[in-house]
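P.,

For your records, the input lines for the assembly:
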Amino acid sequence: MTQLIPPLAQKALGDCAAPAPARVVLRERGQREVFCGLTSIMWLHRKMQDAFFLIVGSRTCAHLMQSAAGVMIFAEPRFATAIIEERDLAGMADINEELNKTVSRLLERRPEIKLLFLVGSCPSEVIKLDLGRAAERLSMTYAPRVRILNYSGSGIETTFTQGEDACLTAMVPELPATDDAGLVVVGALADVVEDQFARIFEALGIGPVHFLPSRKAGTMVPVGPNTKFLLAQPWLRDTARTLEARGATHLPALFPLGAEGTTSWLKAAADAFGVSAERFHAVTEMPRARATRALARYNDTLAGKSLFCFPDSQLEIPLARFLSRELGMTLEEVGTPYLHSVHMADELALLPADVRLSEGQDVDLQLDRCREARPDITLCGLGLANPLEDEGLTTKWSIELVFTPIQGYEQCGDLAELFARPLIRRTRLAV
Amino acid sequence: MQLTVWTYEGPPHIGAMRIATAMEGLHYVLHAPQGDTYADLLFTMIERRAKRPPVTYTTFEARDLGSDTAEIFKSAALGAYERFQPQAMIVGASCTAELIQDDPGGLTKALGLPIPVIALDLPSYSKKENWGASETFYRLVRGLAAEQPKTSANRLTRPICNVLGPTALGFRHRDDVREITGLLFQLGIDVNVVAPLGATPHDLTRLPAADFNVSLYPEIADVAARFLEKEFGQPYTKTIPIGVGATNDFIVEVCGLAGIEVPDLSAFASNMPWWSRSVDSNYLTGKRVFIFGDGTHALAAARVAADELAFTVVGLGCYNREFARPVREAATELGLEALITEDYLEVEAAIARLQPELILGTQMERHIAKRLGIPCAVISAPVHVQDFPARYAPQMGFEGANVIFDTWVHPLIMGLEEHLLGMFREDFEFNDSAGASHLGGHGAAEKVSDAVAAAGQAGEGAAGILHWAPEAENELKKIPFFVRGKAKRNTEAFARDKHLETITLETLYDAKASYGR
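Structure tokens returned:
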């Protein structure tokens, strides 16, 4: 590099770090073995079928996207990377002009795109490429055929699932206003889970119900002062805050993992919409009983087994709550990339008082603790799983939890099975 | 600015990681933001390595920029030295850290560590993975190789060479090394050092003790080999021993460099020539083949395809421009225009236009082949997990030629199945929408399962017992096709067991809860 680029100004990271009272949280800084926010595009680009994600970044970003998950099966994925090159940095090419050309080529090739996200990366943030202005400029060119929004999925600002938070946050100001009452379920869910929840809400008489993000970007979710929203995922701090700024009310609850979590989550909506206790019971009784039956199958395998969670998706705390309370597992350490004390308040209240919570990561130190604890099962990322298996520890890859339908009553058994399988496999293998 | 979906090569620091991960006793401190650790899983998952790559990432954040990223680098480098106690370290920056110009080399020097520290300057915005690997290996060799007494202690009367180029995440490097070192030993040539794969920094200091170098993968080894030739007078091999003919040429070349007689080559048997001459191979004649990969493997594949299998090469190209020239020359000799590109969409368009009967390529071409329904074998990096086989499967040497015969011809033999599909179109299990099994049934899988489902439906209709409510049937379609049949059978068994006439959504999930997965 021949050109000095001024460093990015320090960004306020907000209030994510306040712990629940009386809980000691181990906070660490060091090497983090986690993905950056770009990685959420893996599921977002399948969920929103007429949206496209254009990462403005480096060859590393493109390589991450094709390496981090087996998404190469998609001939034409709904994402791509505009790779910044030497000439863009050296000022030989006007980088904004280059971006215009790239977007124009993309939209010519993919005329079905209705919503285009310009996604910022570490390099685009460091060189202060203003993607917000680029999105405005390009919107004027392509409106009304294509809406163009922007957000940052950079590793210097976001961890893995925070990319979805940033994406949804960018969408909220675009949502149409309404004064009508309604429920919005926030956070990408597998289509089958979304359909199950929609049926339950219908049976409870709650409506209209919208899901954000929805399968079609064209389906705009109306929001206003009489909107109530449930968080389906634990990583939506900024989205929640932005919805609240538009007058919507967050319904605090456990996250819908396990029978207990799902019931709490549904109950929060039922109470807010004045559903009678009898009706709630009548609608949820059968699926709840099914969930309990499905979980019983894995009790022998999981009860009494110890769990160590490396930080990955922010699902770790709700998962630990589910595995400890509904399957009798013990918790060695629950690591999370960020601990949002408000959204996690109900979850934390249900964790054993003595569990070690850690936020952030210094991976070598955490590996030392894990080896010391010798847990029965370790939840960790793909970079650590095989090396830990080689040391004789049984692992579960955390990324499967964001690529598998695990929420709701009907998926309780599947979620438990994800943790039981590596343990069962280890007892079966004789090689 | 370049619009990219899939890439053939990663950034240059991935090349440096391939060198560091291949070696023992070397540690790489990489100035990089959160997220760049994704690269670890290339090695632990795709190559199934049981150890983490020896890489420490500084993991700086936005709030560190402009304040103390240099301090973060220094403490990461010091921490890595203390924890891992390497014999030597390489230090450098990934794409983002390159922009903030912290000078990892200078910062590490200031720490005064008691081991060699080699600073890497790998420009992320203009160079790529192979270049990064080559540059890193060259810097290590240059920094560590020291003048040796010409007759070292382990030198008896046999000539001695180094084998250069194999890395982590290389296509069949592990097995090529075993095959070629075995071949060299049979020829009466000892191996001094294999590097970078399995070598320590200390081993690199011993490189000059050899008489000559074998450059197995020019993309990675040639820059270092040229340095060793200039500095220590070691000549290096130019022939890549892939295929029977090239392996024979390689033997002649190394015997020349070693100053020994070329032995009777009939002693080194490969089954490949006879397999190719036997009558069964007649149907291979003139099969139209498209070849794309790194320059070295594409060139080697073209020779094997044309001369040793009697295929007709209808397309030839490579993604690494550094090796464009020899690929262009080879293409011209075959009466073709070489395709030199890093845009897989261009490769896909060329394949679609040429309609070859076999594609020899990378994992990118394997995906293209699936989409176009064309048989394919992988010949070059980048490759995926299935191209790191448990078995011994070299590409080089005489056993490599056997492996090549099997892996290239195998998809074609299975292709006979397609004739049957064509002849018996109405067969509900093997109809033309089912897709050939060697292509994984991709593209047509949905139709297949529907056909099976329809067949199942008819059977039950005759029995007149079970009826699927439309909503339950719709729900069933949301289950992935590869487990849908099982889910359907389980649900129906469950319903019969409970004496139900109609399968509702409730039944479906009741059954799911009672069967598990």
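Two observations worth noting. Chain B touches chain A through 72 residues (CB under 8 Å). Residues 272-414 of chain B form a domain with the Rossmann fold fold (CATH 3.40.50.1980).

Regards
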